[in-house]
Amino acid sequence: MATLFGIGTSALLAHQRALATVGHNVANSDTEGYSRQRVDFNTQEASRVDVGWLGSGVEASSILRYYDDFLASQIRRTQSVTSQLETEFTHASRLDDMLGDPQVGLDPAMQGFFNALGELADDPASAAARQLVLVESESLADRFNYFFLQYERLRVEANQELALAVDQVNAIAENIAVLNQQISLAWSAGGRVVPNDLLDQRDLLLNDLSKLVNVNTLEQDDHAINVIIGNGQPLVVGSTTTPLSVEVNGSDTLNPDIALTLGGSSVTVTAQITGGELGGLLAFRSEYIDTGLNRLGQLAAGLVASVNAQHTQGIDLYGSMGGNFFSPVSAEGAADSGNSGTGAVSVTLANVEDLTASDYRLTFNGGTSYTLTRLSDGATTAIDTSTTVPVTDGFQMAITAGAVAGDSFLIRPTRSAANEVSLLITDPNRLAVAGALRSGEVTDAAGNPLNSGSGVISQAATSSATGLPLAASITLTYTTDADGSSNPGFSISGGPGGYILYNPATGEVDGKDFPDGSVPGQFDLYGGLSFRVSGTPSAGDQFIITNNSGGRADNRNALALAALQSADLLNGGTTTLQGGYAQLVAEVGSYTRHAETNFRSQEGLLTIQQDALFEISGVNLDEEAANLARYQQAYQAAAQVINTANTIFETLLSAIGR
To answer: What GO terms are given for molecular function (predicted)?
Structure first.
């Protein structure tokens, strides 16, 4: 039966636990991850007496933790997205600042290069102007090399941070596994008593883990949790972990992969990793570093190929045809280290106008069948090596036999191009400023013109160095019937032969020539030669096109080189060189602003969710102070009940003693 002593003692013990819990809350009011606690009171079982049921006091049935699992899961997901965007924004900002800096950007160097070519065109015999072209060319090449190295430096830093983040993930996973074991033991040992502080510690670790990678959790029957990353890859299962590692990529040694150790073997999970710092670093590496280097390489390849092509069409002060202005850049083709066969692929640039900023993967299907996948958009091209391998997106592949079905190759047409830009010319006199050919009317031995008409031929221009220098001079003889249909034109001797048509109204000469017999041919004149004729030639008038033997004051090729600044040389002939760089800067700037905007938005959402959870789990010192006073009064009252019971007991003893 309940006694007054028992009732008072139960109240004293229950409120003592309540006071201890309040004190615990106050002590941990600034502890990260702590969830406030409260004591639940239950009435003790009553006893039946003659007048009814007599209460037997109170008991502290449990210590509850204020927490919302659903809200906590939302916070972890938002935290993961926020951390990824913050990582992308932080790293991309450095790249954006570098590219957009007018002092070190590529645009000023490119502008200086073309300005120097323009000055040389104004004074082709000037030694100072020639030297300035070499100086600006060297500066432009150095700037391409500089940006390549800066991109690679950012890649190295990102890879180092990636390795550090993986180590942090593994360390947190180990601690979660330990806490899983402790929580399971505590729960089983304490029956329905919840190990609140251990749960707080584990949830805090999950929050820290979500800053590094997106995680999902699944609670087991023993109250341990499984932690899942990626697309179902287990990181923690009960008290065991499957650690992550950073491993060299089979075909891309510059971009290490993230692997998960399962059953003694490593499984690459890079493509499945999302969210957190890891997801941000992987996104920055692929979307900013790799794509940026490809875009920069596309620009470098376009510059080098177009300048070289034009420079080889001119002659220098020694009377020689111009050579390559810049060192030609190369493309990359690498076999995956996991290939079973011995097949190989080499890649050369064929048409820089058609190059993209993408990497490609070539996969062997068996027989003579390959599939080329453009990684930027997943577009595929079927390749059959039993026929001539076609030029694809501006590059040509040479595929050697020996591959086994499933073998793959990574194709990078422009990745290293910016690092390979270098000036080949050191002698200013080797600048091929003059045009390769000279045009004029036929003269006699004394230099007197022989034509009777008023026709005048322009200086001949070329579109390539094919067939240059000419093996023999080309003589053009005007005829009023070049195709058997009374159309005027010129017969050709010393060249490919045949006839070319002429439009007296415009002075234009048809780019195709007609072999003897007036049958349309399918070949151009040497070097894609073009010229115009003004005035009115007479039948039999002749013009001669010959090699330019002296071009000190000739600026035609310098003008053509300077004109490359405004020529559409990239993206299928739609973008200029400086437009290509502006596109690169704009893309990085756009990505950076997008990452910042999303980061700020997610950061605000995270704050709202954290505040909502704090309303539930956070310690309010004013509330705790009120609880402290309330429980203190209850404790004192319980003590008074015991004191009263003691007084009653002593009174009874005294009465018995008398």
So the answer is: structural molecule activity
